[in-house]
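Risk mitigation, structural track. In case the binding assays with D-malate fail to produce interpretable data, a predicted complex structure has been prepared as a fallback.
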Amino acid sequence: MTQINAHYLKLQGSYLFSTIGKKVAAYKEAHPSQKVISLGIGDVSQPLVPAVVKALRAAVDEMGNADTFRGYGPEQGYSFLREAIAKADYQARNIAIDKDEIFISDGAKSDVANFQELFSSQVKVALQDPVYPVYLDTNVMAGRTGVFQEGRFTNLIYLSCTEENNFMPQIPAEHADIIYLCSPNNPTGAALNREQLTSWVKYAQANESIILYDSAYEAYITQPKIPHSIYEIAGAEKVAVEFRSFSKTAGFTGTRCAYTVVPRGVQVKDEQGSTHSLRDLWLRRQTTKFNGVPYIVQRGAEAVYSEKGQAQIRAVILQYMQNAHIILEALKTAGIRAFGGENAPYIWLKTPGGLKSWDFFEILLENAQVVGTPGVGFGQCGEGYFRLTAFNTPQLTQEAAARITQLKF
Ligand code: MLT
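Fallback model:
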């Protein structure tokens, strides 16, 4: 029989959100009359904004016309979208990123999952705990981790993010080659300020490491002390790759469009010590394995940067942040300690009465018909915590909040 990649067998359970999906489906089947509200997976509820819909429609018409039809597009993404991104998300903030350093993709999840394959299987990886499971699982699949012991993999550097350190990753004493940072953070909602991010960039410079910076929730930043891009920090353009997405910014979770910035200044070395451009290697990878995001979708994403598009997406983001406020207030009323929700659409709460994360999940589902995400699903440090998202509709968020305040622990 054909042998499989043995590293896959080290993966723990199934992907977190599919486990939750199965549990919720079973509950709904057993209780068909109950109205379940999901504050679980971070999936948006609001439709695409009118400016985006208009652009998508126009692009569909172009594709249906022999004169304007397009086949394969550039693997890196169309120039019109890369230019719009470079201008609005970087140059407008005095960051010198140009369009050729930007790669359009079908999602930050796939990019952040795929990016690790550019590095040797021997590199030492550091990641936050709790953590977005994709960073960990893809490194397990690639064989960079040792065995799973007492809730953690050996041969990995876990950056414990706890209430004591305000859920902020601390600089490790040891050397890491690759560091995954997610800010604003999924799942805790914590966001690195300028000073904290500067120490990470300095660490990466001193250690010749690379930071994989997941900034998918950048649009939710409200405080001026929080940088919107790692490239706001001097020197980051030589040590960091940034992942951004239209999913949570513009409701593209089902439409699929994101981008990754790989500045020309980021260099990596081979076994002999010769240097190579990481950007060129990523381009090589993408041209081989990816055929680009649909033209229609890229036109939709471009419309996000129009004046109307910006005003419309900001209104939706504001609505989600109002949901976050509603959830935070409800938790306060229920006497539950909560964090996040200020620069991120995620609320991270301490389970009442020292309940384990999955026990709280069951209680919330059984007694309030509200779905959330058990903190322990994001790592050992998440045990005893729980995540709620602000992405549902205002009406259902209000209802979920009211149900939560009525719970007795
Ligand atoms: C989440 O709930 O953490 C997100 O939906 C995951 C994702 O964006 O892939």
